[in-house]
Amino acid sequence: MRLLLRQYEGLPYLLPLALEVLRLEPMAEGHMYEGDLLAAVLTRSPEIWSKSPELGRELRLIVSALSDLTPDLKHEVERFLAP
User: What pTM was computed for the model?
Assistant: First the structure.
């Protein structure tokens, strides 16, 4: 799933599925490193979130509850949450 997300393939279908996984396990691993699915979701372009504001709100709720992130993932969370 993370590979397809990073390639912008099937986002209307995959983002809701990815958020289901992240809701249960925010640091889910997609065979690379802990949190790689979250990183794939966070790094999609801002236009994606403006087209699906409900998914963006859900992702904000998920990441706002996280702590003890790696520096790279923390940077991506901060970038996503920035206005």
Answer: 0.91
